[in-house]
């Protein structure tokens, strides 16, 4: 069973590397992290975006996000890793802290928090590396349940 645990740890490291590349705005690292195999089309859904298919479209989207974001940091919680053969599934909550646009050039704008639940699918390459095959992020509408429960005493 130690092999499965080791693979799970390797997948979790690959997952963490994905978020660290975004935080650094590192497009070269992002290119290395995504699967690049014939016949294995990658896909990505950023919160509020349509499905992006194909490596060039996905990498372009990350380049745009990183270029237009002054500051971003991810705190990952609820991380669950499942490995089956050469495929791995990671679910997690992205607790995102980012800088909103600044009023004055050269300054950091106010910090904004956001919750996103994410599913990241990885594929093990012939070389044994885990690469991102698909990412799907959906915003968490915090407080929605609380608003529905306030003052409602009906069964």
From TrEMBL:
Residues 136-155 are annotated as: Disordered. This is Nuclear transport factor 2 family protein. InterPro entries: NTF2-like_dom_sf, SnoaL-like. It comes from the Bacteria. Residues 143-155 have a biased composition (Acidic residues). Residues 11-140 form the SnoaL-like domain. It comes from Streptomyces luteosporeus.
């Amino acid at each position: 069973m130690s092999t499965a645990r080791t693979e799970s740890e390797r997948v979790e490291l690959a997952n963490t590397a994905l978020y660290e590349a975004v935080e650094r705005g590192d497009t070269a690292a992002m290119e290395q992290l995504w699967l690049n195999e014939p016949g294995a089309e990658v896909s990505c859904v950023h919160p509020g975006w349509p499905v992006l298919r194909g490596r060039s479209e996905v990498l372009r989207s990350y380049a745009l996000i990183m270029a237009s974001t002054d500051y971003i940091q991810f705190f990952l919680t609820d991380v669950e890793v499942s490995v089956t053969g050469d495929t791995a599934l990671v679910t997690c909550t992205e607790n995102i802290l980012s800088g909103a646009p600044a009023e004055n050039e050269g300054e950091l704008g106010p910090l904004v928090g956001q919750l996103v639940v994410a599913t990241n699918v990885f594929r093990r390459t012939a070389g044994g590396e885990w690469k991102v095959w698909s990412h799907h992020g959906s915003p968490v509408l915090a407080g929605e349940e609380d608003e529905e429960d306030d003052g409602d005493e009906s069964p």
